[in-house]
Amino acid sequence: MDPTFKPPPPVGSSPTTFPPLPKLEILNPSTLPPHRFLRPAKRINEGPDVSHFLTSKAYRDICVWILQLNHALVPRIIKKSTAAPTTAPKPTDEQKAEANEEPPKDALAAKLQLLRKKRDEQLLPREEIKTFPLPSSREGGLDNQEPESIQKLQRLLKKVEAIIDEAPPDPGPRRFGNVSFRTWYKLLESRADGLLREYLPGGVLRWEGAGTTKEERQNKEEEEGTETETETETEGESDKKTNEQKPEVVGPLEELKAYFLGGFGSAQRLDYGTGHELSFMMFLGGLWKLGGFEGEENDEDGEVERRIVLGVVEPYLRVIRRLILTYTLEPAGSHGVWGLDDHSFIPYIFGSAQYTRPISSPNEPTPLEGSVPNAPKPSDITKATAVERYRTENMYFSAIGFINDVKKGPFWEHSPILFDVSGIKDGWGKINKGMIKMFNAEVLSKFPVVQHFPFGSLFQWEKDPEAGVPVQSVHMQNQPVASAASAAVTGGVGIPTERPSGPGGVTGTAAPWAQAPAQAPGAGAGMPPPMTAAPWARSSGAGVGPSTANRFTPFKPSGGPGGAPNTGPPPPESFPSGTPGTASNQFAVTKAPWAK
Question: How does the average pLDDT of the chain come out, rounded?
Answer without folding.
Answer: 75
